[in-house]
Amino acid sequence: MHAYRTHTCGALRKSDVGTTVRLSGWVNRRRDHGGLIFLDLRDHYGITQCVIEPDAAAFALVDTARSEWVLTLTGKVVARSAETINKDLATGEVELRIEQAAVQGQAQELPLPVFGDHTYPEETRLTYRFLDLRRERLHKNIMLRAGIITSLRRRMIEQGFTEFQTPILTASSPEGARDFLVPSRRYPGQFYALPQAPQQFKQLIMVAGFDRYFQIAPCFRDEDGRADRSPGEFYQLDLEMSFVTQDDVFAAVAPVLAGVFEEFGGGKAVTPHDKFPRIPFAEAMLKYGTDKPDLRNPIEIVDVSEIFGRAEVEFKAFKAKTVRAIPAPGAGPQPRSFFDKLNEWARGEGAAGLGYIQFEDEGGALVGKGPIAKFITGAALTDMAKAAGVKAGDALFFSADAKPDRAANLAGMARTRIGRELNLIPDTEFKFCWIVDFPMYEWNEDDKKIDFSHNPFSMPQFDREKFLGLDPADKDTILGIKAYQYDIVCNGYELSSGAIRNHDPDVMLKAFEIAGYARDETEEKFKGMINAFRHGAPPHGGTAPGIDRIVMLLAGEENLREVTMFPMTQSAQDLLMNAPSPANAKQLKELHLRVVYPEKS
User: Fold this and answer.
1) How far apart are CA 25 and CA 71, in angstroms?
2) Residue 530's closest CA among 540, 519, 541, 515?
3) Among 144, 430, 473, 528, which has the minimal tally of Cβ within 10 Å of its Cβ?
4) pTM of the shown model
5) What are 244-281's pLDDT values in tens digits?
6) Phi, psi (5° rounding) for residue 368?
């Protein structure tokens, strides 16, 4: 018989009754019943109930065992009586009668009990992550993550992609988030950087003649964490394709994502891969107030600025402003407290509040009620209701600001908030869409200059010769240029950003010149890529869906910490391994570094 186990703790069935077996695992739970001791023994595969009677030879040893001790138990498999069968366990029809026992590892008093699903502070959970990972929910999430990554790999290979690895130690990138720098011992005063993404390398792979690349790629960014973004590091399904249009990228990626969500979505409906809606960026910002719309929410925002600008509308607070109307289906009869609560929420977001109108039927005529309704009557009220698609029994909320983007942003947040308050967002489906036609540039109001709005390496949707001849001072034309950029969005989460790349060195230099970069500066910062493009570059494009967010959605979690094996805190600390930590004097000397601490205030 094997020294530790003949079966796992999830393997025994009724067909094993009468056989002598050996199990090893952790004590998940202990129960004393009238002299009998019941132990639920747990391993990676499941749980088996084990029992020992007071006159058994191993009773004294088993009696010392406590939660999370590691035991090896040997005995016969017996059938449970009908009334004691546990239908929630795969092994629930049998139990192990303990004849021999051995302690493999004792556990001190637990700072984090494993049995049950209680809530504990982040600091405790991350300091004792090895205990946290033993808990059923988290253990299940990590195994789900492994299954999803395996499925993604298989699906990518079936689509004709080949997996390649790109460098981890590389050069600092001048664009995007803050780099993690690694000092060089051999080259004093010089630094490597951990890659924010394999962006330049995957494009160079295309230039090198490899056709379809993918990688489960680690990415590193020194930025603050939040619920849907891990501080420090994350993983993405990085991919790139040669000789493709935007449509080709969509046709390759959508089946992979839809297939994974169908496989692991627990029966929830998934948008068919060939029916992902394509929503232009401008339309998304108008109808949803965000470029990450949750399409499960049926609410669509409309612009009513023109109506509030009419002479007969006397509500002066909205004059000469962008005004977005957010329908609230069925909210008309809601009590005043419902509307006050949403107003308070808007103020908490830094807005003045949300104006609103409740719609009622009076003798067959549509009338408005509420604080601002008396200022909007007659044709204005009718036109507003028609534009927003509301009727008697509904309500309209309003977001207004002198800056259109701020009005859109508040309207988008209000749309989500109202959808949740009215229970309009079903948790029974995964709704995907592509956001397309992002603007190539945007106006930086603070610096009074043109900036890239999304991805500087994207190909502009503009005639090449006309683009090369653009005057950087021609603000209106430049701000109207769209790029071949696209995002994949699911249920309000951006899963991926991608683009058809700018592989033309002349167009790239011009694109950066428009954004205020001198040509020699661009040549220096992107020397490797531009040089490669001058040696025969194919048209290419790709994208990079985030693994962590995919798993978070499929696990039904709201925080990436719940689907990451060893996450950092929101403040980017590893409490388990005590990182970051000071380097000793010898290490600093070898690296030719000296630490200068910030002055204490």
Assistant:
1) 6
2) 519
3) 473
4) 0.93
5) 999 999 999 999 999 999 999 999 999 999 999 999 99
6) -110, 145
